[in-house]
Queue: 4 jobs
Job 1
Amino acid sequence: MTRKENTIREKILKGLELTHKKLIQFKIERNLDLVISDNGKIKKIHPKDLQ
């Protein structure tokens, strides 16, 4: 990878981390479960378990 590609990749990863934090905070504030797929199986997780 070139330096430019690495910079873009780092920015994308930082954006994903920020989005993840905001999603968890939103779910905690509204007392909602986080629904994920784990190998094709649907799981509900309370967001406080992820902190």
Job 2
Amino acid sequence: MRKRFYFIIITSLSILISCAGTPSIIEQENHDTGAIQNEELTEVLISREQPQIDNKELIFRAENGLELDISEMEDIAFGFVHTGMYSPEGDVQLITKDLDHGLHSLAFRTNLKTHSVKDIIVSPKSYSWSSSGKYVVIHNIDYYADDGSTGIVVLNVQSGHYIEITRDQLINGVDLGKRDKLNIYNIVWLDSNRFSLIISAGYLGESGHPGINYNRKADLGENFGNKGDIILVANWEVEIVNDESTSLDPPKEEKSETLKLLLGKWQSMDDTNSYVMFTEKEIIYSYGLEVTGQETYVLSDSCMDTAVINEENSSDSPQYIYMETSDTCFYIIDLAQQYLALSFIGRGNTLTYVK
């Protein structure tokens, strides 16, 4: 049986929080959670939502339409894992800029432009991408004082909208005693809209800052740095159940099945030292390790030397490869996962390749 939890963001609450080693964090009234700016990365206002929590009914919803449904899992989950600054396909890059003591502003760069995310601060190291590359979970960790996990941010890199789950929401009223160090682990994606995470709690230890260490030792006594007394806080399944946000960039052009098969490096069956490599826009010729030529091309339904052929008039199953730079044209005789046969229009000879 799975327990369900719900969280609600109260945007009219204004608070001032002062933390050792961090600047003051000011709550702004009625600010647009997850709003973005379509411009180069700039310093952003450091602000956080601090929701009120009602243990009887908790609802978590952002003003921009994003909504999370959280339920308790009984077992450890296995799923998709892709970490780092780049999305699985490499077409989106996260960008952070240090503001103060490990607190970073956040932006993301697509193929077209850089988008700065307003009113959010993150840690610079831990990211977990969905297989589609649409969402990324940012695990915020206090590296300055070694305070452990401070929360997560679920960011839609197509729209720039996000939801933040704070430390207090992660604890969800569980009595931790003096175990103030949270640890989030096993962040894995179960499908394109669901991920899991496990949260434990233990005692604080060395921070690298003498003043912080002194206060912790005075408070914890023999439990200072105790790594043997850890409790499980939660084992959550998090589902994105509502996302009505609009993409910032035009939709990606779908690759034709022909292009998907063409992409990659092919070896000539007539001369094993001769290669041709297809990228999405170019054909690169090489002999051995030496590049011998490079041309731009388009896929088309026809092959006319005087025609201007482009992708807009190409079908889903184009039959010709037209070289824009030389007016050379090839007819695709056969194309499979590992085999390619081309007819050189005008010469009549056949070129065959394998991957």
Job 3
Amino acid sequence: MSTPRHLLRRSAVFALFVALASSPLACKKGADTAGPDAAGGSGDQAAGTELRYKAGPYKLRADVKFSFKATSPQGVNEAAGDLSGLLDVTDAGGKLKVGLSVTEVRDFVLGKDMLPPPKEGETPVDPKTAVQGFTGAFVADMRGELDEAGTKALPETAAAKEKKGVEAAVAGFATGVLGLPELPKVALVEGKTVETNERKDENLQGLVIPVDTASKFTLLKIDSSSGKRIAEIKYESESSGAVEQGKQMITLDVAAEGTVLFDLDDQLPVRRTSSSTTNISAGQMGFEIVNTIDTTFTRA
């Protein structure tokens, strides 16, 4: 990384967006995180309620609205979308393989500086048209946490690496907004807040930053008025990290919050909302990224 501007190269922005967007309700392996990571279902346990996804196969429709805004010394870049996708969930040896595709695009706009310019003589590609052809896949555990090794081994991942230009750009956003919410590892008790802490290395385009994250999870209520037990979980977190690069310090600070509605009987997500603000400083330069996601899930 030769200059701080590297931090706002298009690929870096997309990578950070995907990382933030994919974890609106995440409970990692923190120092004070407790509770078994069973592959079984959701239910009332002695220590509280554990949330786990149903084993495949099944299909979910995801109706998503998202917004994204990146502010840097070079200006402001914004993106927004309103689309539907299909999540095709199958068994992956005690884990979940989730196939992704976009089925309907009501709105999809990327700022002009967020797309690579067309080559000479090349016809510009409409982002809305490009995202309509998106397909992808990932592997996750029964809490929805990404299995990086399993995902890397998928043929869909190899195919994604071949995408270039606008297709690669829109794929970054589609991957970030489509997917399963991560569920807490810990059992939750209604009305009580559980706090966890973790330290994890975050890789931002080759720059490894050790990041400390403090998270809070609260099971607000379990509503049975629909005939199903729907758990409402609130999530809040603050993360910070820093690394010295050359003669300057690179810092990363993230504040995030969200809620998930989860069907305890069917072991499926109902809705997730999330928002986060990320601030990156590199020497005297500062960058801010703000994104929001609102997703409703239904059986397909």
Job 4
Amino acid sequence: MHELDIHGAIHIILNEKKRPIVLLLAQHNNFRSYVPGTGALTVPADNRLKICFALRSNEPYPCPAGKAPTRQRAVGDPSHISYVINGTGRPFLSGKDIVFGSGAGARPVQYELKFLPDKDPLYVSWIPLGAKEKVLFFKSYYRKGPPGMDLNTWQELKKYSDIMQFWYLRDGSAEDARFMSSALRSFMDVDFKRVLERNGRRLYNDIADAERKGP
């Protein structure tokens, strides 16, 4: 749709022992949060969580296992998150990201950690950080480059502690799909309080369970 995202927003929340307890990933116009040690997201001995970037879209996902790539459902409007969760209610503006794990040929990326100023344009830019393409001869929102990483979807979810609670969802869960559809009635009509209370309670219960089990 537009020029490839130039950044992948990956947030790793650590406990006092510097062990990862929550992985928060920005995927298109929504986030997803995961508790390492629960579900399919394991914690390696070196504590380095394995994250893979989707082909062409450059969106981050937990690396899949197996010798074949996986196809992850994706939407442009976060109010259609039920389709991402379990495939129900597929909207017109949707697709699938192709994600390769190490067994399917993914290549490791070398990186270097650097701390940038809080006001760095990579975080706070309102202008597109990329080319402004057209659909035929017309300018289009859908073909603008991405803005800075801190420009999240809703003002009500500016704190990362709230974001990781709001987007704590279970893949394949019909219950979660129904709940999120009822709370996200449209892009401009969202029951933030109800989602934060319900999903946040389960997130912190799962963190506590994972902490009790240990590495």
